[in-house]
Amino acid sequence: MPFPQDRLRRLRATAGFRRLVRETRLSVDNLIAPFFVMEGRDVRQPIGAMPGQWRVSVDHLIKDAGEVHALGVPAILLFGIPARKDELGSEAWAPDGIVPRAVRAVKDTVPDVMVITDVCVDEYTTHGHCGIVKDGQVVNDETLACLQKMALSHARAGADMVAPSDMMDGRIGAIRQALDGEGFSQVPILAYAAKFASCLYAPFREAADSTPKFGDRQSYQMDPANLREALREIELDIQEGADIVMIKPALPYLDVVHAARQAFNRPIAAYQVSGEYSMIKAAAQLGWLDERRAMLETLLAIHRAGADLILTYFAKEAARALHE
Questions:
Q1: Is the residue at 4 inside a domain?
Q2: Alpha-carbon gap, residue 254 to 250, rounded angstroms
Protein backbone atom coordinates (compact mmCIF):
# COMPACT_ATOMS: atom_id res chain seq x y z
CA MET A 1 0.00 0.00 0.00
CA PRO A 2 1.28 3.52 -0.76
CA PHE A 3 1.70 6.26 1.83
CA PRO A 4 -0.09 7.11 4.12
CA GLN A 5 -1.14 3.48 4.73
CA ASP A 6 2.39 2.11 4.34
CA ARG A 7 4.65 3.73 6.94
CA LEU A 8 8.03 2.05 7.31
CA ARG A 9 8.93 4.34 10.20
CA ARG A 10 6.47 2.47 12.43
CA LEU A 11 9.02 -0.30 12.95
CA ARG A 12 11.88 2.13 13.56
CA ALA A 13 10.12 4.11 16.27
CA THR A 14 11.66 2.42 19.32
CA ALA A 15 14.74 0.40 20.19
CA GLY A 16 12.49 -2.59 20.85
CA PHE A 17 10.93 -2.50 17.39
CA ARG A 18 14.35 -2.06 15.77
CA ARG A 19 15.66 -5.13 17.61
CA LEU A 20 12.68 -7.22 16.57
CA VAL A 21 13.08 -6.57 12.84
CA ARG A 22 16.89 -6.36 12.62
CA GLU A 23 18.04 -8.34 9.59
CA THR A 24 21.76 -8.69 10.32
CA ARG A 25 23.22 -9.46 13.73
CA LEU A 26 26.91 -9.09 14.44
CA SER A 27 28.32 -11.49 17.02
CA VAL A 28 31.66 -12.15 18.68
CA ASP A 29 31.44 -15.52 16.92
CA ASN A 30 32.13 -13.67 13.65
CA LEU A 31 35.45 -12.19 14.83
CA ILE A 32 39.10 -13.22 14.46
CA ALA A 33 41.82 -11.23 16.24
CA PRO A 34 45.21 -10.78 14.50
CA PHE A 35 48.44 -10.50 16.53
CA PHE A 36 52.06 -9.70 15.71
CA VAL A 37 54.43 -11.94 17.66
CA MET A 38 58.18 -11.37 17.91
CA GLU A 39 61.29 -12.69 19.61
CA GLY A 40 62.26 -11.77 23.15
CA ARG A 41 60.63 -11.73 26.55
CA ASP A 42 58.41 -9.12 28.17
CA VAL A 43 58.28 -7.23 24.86
CA ARG A 44 55.30 -5.03 24.07
CA GLN A 45 56.18 -2.53 21.36
CA PRO A 46 53.49 -0.07 20.27
CA ILE A 47 52.89 0.16 16.52
CA GLY A 48 52.92 3.85 15.61
CA ALA A 49 50.66 3.57 12.57
CA MET A 50 48.16 1.32 14.38
CA PRO A 51 47.14 2.95 17.68
CA GLY A 52 46.19 0.33 20.24
CA GLN A 53 48.15 -2.47 18.55
CA TRP A 54 51.51 -3.93 19.57
CA ARG A 55 54.27 -6.27 18.58
CA VAL A 56 54.43 -8.73 21.45
CA SER A 57 56.67 -11.49 22.69
CA VAL A 58 55.21 -14.94 23.31
CA ASP A 59 54.66 -14.35 27.03
CA HIS A 60 52.47 -11.32 26.28
CA LEU A 61 50.74 -13.10 23.40
CA ILE A 62 49.55 -15.78 25.82
CA LYS A 63 47.93 -13.11 28.00
CA ASP A 64 46.33 -11.40 24.99
CA ALA A 65 45.02 -14.70 23.64
CA GLY A 66 43.49 -15.48 27.02
CA GLU A 67 41.85 -12.07 27.15
CA VAL A 68 40.21 -12.27 23.72
CA HIS A 69 39.13 -15.84 24.44
CA ALA A 70 37.50 -14.71 27.70
CA LEU A 71 35.59 -12.12 25.67
CA GLY A 72 34.23 -14.90 23.45
CA VAL A 73 36.37 -14.29 20.35
CA PRO A 74 36.84 -17.80 18.95
CA ALA A 75 40.11 -17.43 17.03
CA ILE A 76 43.36 -15.53 16.67
CA LEU A 77 45.61 -15.09 13.62
CA LEU A 78 49.39 -14.98 14.10
CA PHE A 79 51.94 -13.01 12.10
CA GLY A 80 55.56 -13.73 12.95
CA ILE A 81 58.38 -11.19 13.11
CA PRO A 82 61.67 -13.11 13.09
CA ALA A 83 64.99 -12.04 14.55
CA ARG A 84 66.79 -12.99 11.32
CA LYS A 85 65.90 -12.63 7.65
CA ASP A 86 67.43 -13.98 4.45
CA GLU A 87 66.71 -14.01 0.73
CA LEU A 88 64.56 -17.15 0.94
CA GLY A 89 62.79 -16.38 4.22
CA SER A 90 64.00 -19.67 5.68
CA GLU A 91 63.03 -18.71 9.24
CA ALA A 92 59.42 -19.00 8.01
CA TRP A 93 59.59 -22.80 8.23
CA ALA A 94 62.12 -23.27 11.02
CA PRO A 95 60.71 -25.82 13.50
CA ASP A 96 61.68 -23.55 16.41
CA GLY A 97 60.75 -20.33 14.62
CA ILE A 98 58.72 -17.61 16.26
CA VAL A 99 55.31 -18.76 14.99
CA PRO A 100 55.66 -22.49 15.84
CA ARG A 101 56.81 -21.52 19.34
CA ALA A 102 53.92 -19.09 19.68
CA VAL A 103 51.43 -21.72 18.50
CA ARG A 104 52.67 -24.27 21.01
CA ALA A 105 52.59 -21.73 23.85
CA VAL A 106 49.05 -20.58 23.10
CA LYS A 107 47.70 -24.11 22.69
CA ASP A 108 49.36 -25.13 25.95
CA THR A 109 47.85 -22.24 27.94
CA VAL A 110 44.60 -21.34 26.12
CA PRO A 111 43.78 -24.63 24.38
CA ASP A 112 40.24 -23.68 23.40
CA VAL A 113 41.18 -20.63 21.35
CA MET A 114 41.57 -21.45 17.66
CA VAL A 115 45.04 -20.56 16.36
CA ILE A 116 45.30 -19.62 12.69
CA THR A 117 48.71 -18.91 11.17
CA ASP A 118 49.59 -16.64 8.28
CA VAL A 119 51.53 -18.52 5.61
CA CYS A 120 53.64 -16.07 3.61
CA VAL A 121 57.37 -15.34 3.56
CA ASP A 122 57.28 -11.54 3.22
CA GLU A 123 58.00 -10.91 6.93
CA TYR A 124 60.95 -13.31 6.74
CA THR A 125 62.74 -12.16 3.57
CA THR A 126 65.35 -9.43 3.25
CA HIS A 127 63.61 -8.11 0.13
CA GLY A 128 60.10 -8.03 1.64
CA HIS A 129 58.33 -9.86 -1.19
CA CYS A 130 55.92 -12.78 -0.80
CA GLY A 131 58.03 -15.27 -2.72
CA ILE A 132 61.45 -16.19 -4.01
CA VAL A 133 63.05 -13.47 -6.15
CA LYS A 134 65.11 -14.31 -9.23
CA ASP A 135 66.49 -11.69 -11.61
CA GLY A 136 64.31 -9.05 -9.98
CA GLN A 137 61.09 -11.07 -10.42
CA VAL A 138 58.96 -12.89 -7.84
CA VAL A 139 58.83 -16.44 -9.20
CA ASN A 140 55.76 -18.54 -8.64
CA ASP A 141 56.47 -22.25 -8.74
CA GLU A 142 59.70 -22.18 -6.73
CA THR A 143 57.83 -20.31 -3.99
CA LEU A 144 55.29 -23.11 -3.56
CA ALA A 145 57.82 -25.40 -1.90
CA CYS A 146 58.56 -22.67 0.68
CA LEU A 147 54.87 -22.29 1.45
CA GLN A 148 54.47 -26.05 1.83
CA LYS A 149 57.31 -26.18 4.35
CA MET A 150 55.93 -23.19 6.25
CA ALA A 151 52.41 -24.64 6.48
CA LEU A 152 53.80 -27.98 7.65
CA SER A 153 55.92 -26.36 10.36
CA HIS A 154 52.80 -24.61 11.70
CA ALA A 155 50.69 -27.76 11.55
CA ARG A 156 53.35 -29.75 13.39
CA ALA A 157 53.34 -27.10 16.12
CA GLY A 158 49.58 -27.53 16.57
CA ALA A 159 48.03 -24.77 14.45
CA ASP A 160 44.28 -25.28 14.05
CA MET A 161 44.21 -23.71 10.58
CA VAL A 162 46.71 -22.26 8.09
CA ALA A 163 46.05 -19.13 6.05
CA PRO A 164 48.18 -18.62 2.91
CA SER A 165 48.28 -14.91 1.99
CA ASP A 166 50.91 -14.85 -0.76
CA MET A 167 48.66 -14.97 -3.87
CA MET A 168 50.92 -17.37 -5.76
CA ASP A 169 49.10 -19.48 -8.36
CA GLY A 170 48.52 -23.06 -7.23
CA ARG A 171 49.55 -22.59 -3.62
CA ILE A 172 46.31 -23.94 -2.10
CA GLY A 173 46.64 -27.23 -3.94
CA ALA A 174 50.33 -27.47 -3.06
CA ILE A 175 49.70 -26.82 0.64
CA ARG A 176 46.76 -29.23 0.73
CA GLN A 177 48.90 -31.93 -0.84
CA ALA A 178 51.71 -31.31 1.66
CA LEU A 179 49.41 -31.33 4.68
CA ASP A 180 47.61 -34.48 3.58
CA GLY A 181 50.90 -36.20 2.80
CA GLU A 182 52.16 -35.61 6.35
CA GLY A 183 48.96 -36.76 8.06
CA PHE A 184 47.40 -33.31 8.59
CA SER A 185 44.30 -33.84 6.50
CA GLN A 186 42.22 -32.46 9.40
CA VAL A 187 43.92 -29.03 9.23
CA PRO A 188 41.76 -26.64 7.16
CA ILE A 189 43.00 -23.91 4.85
CA LEU A 190 41.75 -20.34 5.05
CA ALA A 191 42.76 -18.96 1.66
CA TYR A 192 43.43 -15.30 1.04
CA ALA A 193 41.63 -15.95 -2.22
CA ALA A 194 41.04 -12.40 -3.49
CA LYS A 195 43.80 -10.23 -2.02
CA PHE A 196 43.92 -6.90 -3.78
CA ALA A 197 47.01 -4.73 -4.30
CA SER A 198 45.80 -2.05 -1.91
CA CYS A 199 47.37 1.05 -0.36
CA LEU A 200 45.53 0.13 2.85
CA TYR A 201 48.25 -2.34 3.92
CA ALA A 202 50.76 0.40 4.75
CA PRO A 203 50.32 0.33 8.55
CA PHE A 204 50.65 -3.48 8.53
CA ARG A 205 53.94 -3.25 6.66
CA GLU A 206 55.27 -1.00 9.38
CA ALA A 207 54.07 -3.46 12.02
CA ALA A 208 55.57 -6.51 10.31
CA ASP A 209 58.61 -4.78 8.77
CA SER A 210 57.58 -6.22 5.41
CA THR A 211 57.68 -3.30 2.96
CA PRO A 212 59.18 -4.50 -0.36
CA LYS A 213 62.72 -3.22 -0.85
CA PHE A 214 62.09 -2.82 -4.57
CA GLY A 215 59.06 -2.59 -6.83
CA ASP A 216 55.61 -3.48 -5.55
CA ARG A 217 53.28 -6.47 -5.29
CA GLN A 218 51.02 -5.77 -8.24
CA SER A 219 52.35 -8.72 -10.23
CA TYR A 220 50.82 -11.16 -7.75
CA GLN A 221 48.20 -9.30 -5.71
CA MET A 222 45.01 -8.45 -7.56
CA ASP A 223 44.13 -5.36 -9.58
CA PRO A 224 41.52 -3.43 -7.53
CA ALA A 225 39.52 -2.92 -10.74
CA ASN A 226 38.71 -6.60 -11.28
CA LEU A 227 35.63 -8.26 -9.80
CA ARG A 228 35.28 -11.11 -12.30
CA GLU A 229 38.92 -12.08 -11.85
CA ALA A 230 38.38 -12.12 -8.07
CA LEU A 231 35.61 -14.68 -8.51
CA ARG A 232 37.90 -16.78 -10.70
CA GLU A 233 40.60 -16.67 -8.02
CA ILE A 234 38.09 -17.75 -5.37
CA GLU A 235 36.75 -20.55 -7.55
CA LEU A 236 40.24 -21.89 -8.24
CA ASP A 237 41.14 -21.87 -4.55
CA ILE A 238 37.98 -23.81 -3.74
CA GLN A 239 38.79 -26.33 -6.46
CA GLU A 240 42.29 -26.73 -5.00
CA GLY A 241 40.95 -27.45 -1.52
CA ALA A 242 40.33 -24.19 0.34
CA ASP A 243 37.90 -24.66 3.22
CA ILE A 244 37.28 -20.93 3.77
CA VAL A 245 37.95 -18.13 1.28
CA MET A 246 38.83 -14.56 2.15
CA ILE A 247 38.50 -11.17 0.50
CA LYS A 248 41.05 -8.52 1.53
CA PRO A 249 40.63 -5.58 2.17
CA ALA A 250 37.02 -5.61 3.35
CA LEU A 251 35.11 -2.33 3.28
CA PRO A 252 36.26 -1.02 -0.14
CA TYR A 253 35.50 -4.46 -1.62
CA LEU A 254 32.04 -5.22 -0.23
CA ASP A 255 30.83 -5.82 -3.79
CA VAL A 256 33.34 -8.66 -4.05
CA VAL A 257 32.25 -10.06 -0.67
CA HIS A 258 28.61 -9.95 -1.77
CA ALA A 259 29.32 -11.51 -5.17
CA ALA A 260 31.31 -14.30 -3.54
CA ARG A 261 28.50 -14.95 -1.05
CA GLN A 262 26.05 -15.31 -3.95
CA ALA A 263 28.33 -17.51 -6.04
CA PHE A 264 29.95 -19.93 -3.61
CA ASN A 265 28.70 -22.34 -0.97
CA ARG A 266 31.72 -21.89 1.29
CA PRO A 267 32.34 -19.86 4.44
CA ILE A 268 33.40 -16.36 3.39
CA ALA A 269 35.90 -14.29 5.38
CA ALA A 270 36.84 -10.65 4.98
CA TYR A 271 39.85 -8.84 6.43
CA GLN A 272 39.30 -5.35 7.83
CA VAL A 273 42.91 -4.43 7.18
CA SER A 274 45.32 -2.15 9.01
CA GLY A 275 44.52 0.92 6.91
CA GLU A 276 40.79 0.54 7.55
CA TYR A 277 41.49 0.25 11.28
CA SER A 278 43.95 3.14 11.38
CA MET A 279 41.70 5.52 9.45
CA ILE A 280 38.94 5.07 12.02
CA LYS A 281 41.42 5.45 14.90
CA ALA A 282 42.94 8.61 13.42
CA ALA A 283 39.60 10.25 12.67
CA ALA A 284 38.37 9.43 16.16
CA GLN A 285 41.51 10.90 17.75
CA LEU A 286 40.81 14.13 15.85
CA GLY A 287 37.22 14.14 17.05
CA TRP A 288 35.83 13.73 13.56
CA LEU A 289 33.72 10.64 14.30
CA ASP A 290 32.58 8.38 17.11
CA GLU A 291 35.08 5.51 17.17
CA ARG A 292 32.76 2.95 18.77
CA ARG A 293 29.92 3.62 16.34
CA ALA A 294 32.26 3.65 13.33
CA MET A 295 33.82 0.36 14.44
CA LEU A 296 30.49 -1.40 14.88
CA GLU A 297 28.93 0.11 11.75
CA THR A 298 31.80 -0.98 9.50
CA LEU A 299 31.90 -4.48 10.99
CA LEU A 300 28.14 -4.80 10.56
CA ALA A 301 28.42 -3.68 6.93
CA ILE A 302 31.07 -6.33 6.24
CA HIS A 303 28.89 -9.01 7.83
CA ARG A 304 25.77 -7.75 6.01
CA ALA A 305 27.57 -7.98 2.66
CA GLY A 306 28.06 -11.71 3.26
CA ALA A 307 31.19 -12.27 5.36
CA ASP A 308 30.73 -15.04 7.90
CA LEU A 309 34.11 -14.29 9.48
CA ILE A 310 35.78 -10.91 9.97
CA LEU A 311 39.46 -10.53 10.72
CA THR A 312 39.79 -7.21 12.53
CA TYR A 313 42.19 -5.38 14.83
CA PHE A 314 39.05 -4.14 16.58
CA ALA A 315 38.21 -7.68 17.75
CA LYS A 316 38.80 -7.03 21.45
CA GLU A 317 37.01 -3.65 21.47
CA ALA A 318 34.16 -4.97 19.35
CA ALA A 319 33.70 -7.98 21.62
CA ARG A 320 33.42 -5.72 24.66
CA ALA A 321 30.90 -3.51 22.87
CA LEU A 322 28.82 -6.50 21.74
CA HIS A 323 28.62 -7.77 25.31
CA GLU A 324 27.15 -4.48 26.57
A1: no
A2: 6
- The rounded distance, in Å, linking the Cα atoms of 165 and 183 is 23
Q: Is 248 a catalytic residue?
A: yes
> Is 316 one of the annotated active-site residues of the chain?
no
Q: Which of 119, 249, 264 is nearest to 195 (CA)?
A: 249
Answer whether residue 303 is part of any domain. no
Q: Which one of 107, 149, 195, 281 is the catalytic residue?
A: 195
Task: Give the domain extent around 90.
Answer: 25-245
Q: What is the pLDDT of residues 43-95, one digit of tens each?
A: 999 999 999 999 999 999 999 999 999 999 999 999 999 999 999 999 999 99
What is the domain-level CATH number for residue 63? 3.20.20.70
Which residue in 188, 119, 113, 174 sits closest to 144, CA to CA? Answer: 174
Structural domain tally of the chain? 1
Question: How many whole angstroms separate alpha carbon 322 and alpha carbon 243?
Answer: 27
Given 85, 149, 248, 281, the catalytic residue: 248
208 occurs within a structural domain: yes
Is the pTM here over 0.90, yes or no? yes
